[in-house]
Design a protein that fits this description.
465 residues; Helix Hairpins; rod-shaped; two-stranded antiparallel sheet; Glucose Permease (Domain IIA); 5 helices; alpha+beta; single chain
Length: 465
Amino acid sequence: MAARHARTLVSAALSVCLLGGVVTYASADPDPKQQKEHVEEKLSDARGDLQETSADLVEAHDALEKTRGKLPAARSKAEQAAAAEVSAQSEYDDAVAAHEVAQANEHKAEKELRTTSTRISRARKEVGGFAGQVYQRDGIGTMKVAVGSEDPSDFIDKMIMAESVGETQGAALQDLSTSRANLVSTGDRLQALREQTKQAKETKEGALASAQEASSAADAAQADLESLEDDQSSQAAALERAKKKDTKRVESLQAESDKLTKILEERARQARIREAEIRKARKAQERREAEARERAEQQRRERERASRESAPSAPSAPAPKPAPPKPAPPKPAPSSGVLSAPSSAPVSSQFGYRYHPILHYSRLHAGRDYAASCGTAVRAAASGTVISAGVAGGYGNQLVIDHGVKRGTSLATTYNHLQRFAVSGGHVERGQVIGYVGTTGTSTGCHLHFETRENGTPVDPRRWL
């Protein structure tokens, strides 16, 4: 009973431990195509999360989820075993009671049999005594005794005695016959009761074996459940350690990102200053050129006026018609994007904030992941200057290209987790191989983490591609 109570408490405790949140997904848009695109984007984000999560964290999380998946079946098995144990114990108790009743009936019948045997033995002695007495006296019946009497009084006394002896002998014989019949009946009943007792004993022994087997099964199921609980506790502790370790890596990655942001912000500030100086110089040059043109035009008009004044009068000729304006040059076709994709591999994760399924907090995926295999070439998204090529904490091998001012903002791109570099500085052209895909830094698999930064701040690369 104490073991069953302990198992019940452990099962209830495990039920509390396993309470977890349920994530549901509902789309407000009934269009199946849009739903599929939304699901694909969610799947892409989840794959990106997995790429950025440490291998230890993924392993600990998977082990914990597998253990949690086994616990309901183990708990159900333990509960079934405990119920079987209770049922088997009840059957055993009933069998013990039936066996005790059968034994009591058997003992009662044995006592009755002994009593009947005693009565038969006594009746046999009495009959034998009467028969010997009569035989020793005369060896004849009642009438012979009466005829041999010497006088009427003696005759009457002998007749009365003979009849009394006969009646007593008859009663003894009747009792002997009844006792013999009872003996046979009691013997038959005792045999049946002994068979019943034997069957009750066998039933009790079978029920006992079943109860012992059920108890052993319940103990084994409970042991399995407790072992799983221990595994879950150890795996949860391992997951917690891995989460702390991975959180530190994320913080390191964020620190590197912040450091890069400051560098690019300073470069963007300097680029804006240079751009302003260039615009100022260009405006000054345009102003000087306009003033020069104005002076040249003034001089031309003065020469024409002097020439007309010195020439003889003549009929005035009509002023020449102004030349038709030249057609404006055709506008260039709109570009598909300032940047081109750095890899032809499929995108495994997009830019954006999302809730991490293991770390359980929202975090920014500051770029776009391309699921390319290690060693695949990485190309420059646009022409620019390499301003950094080296190890950058959680980013691993990182290459940064400054593309100058685009659309009024300073634009830079970063290429992270590279296996190795193809360039380390200088100017690069759009589409030029600059490195090769790897899995350095905080990464659990080969992929390219590509970022675009406006004035140092990470933005969605799709705005520029």
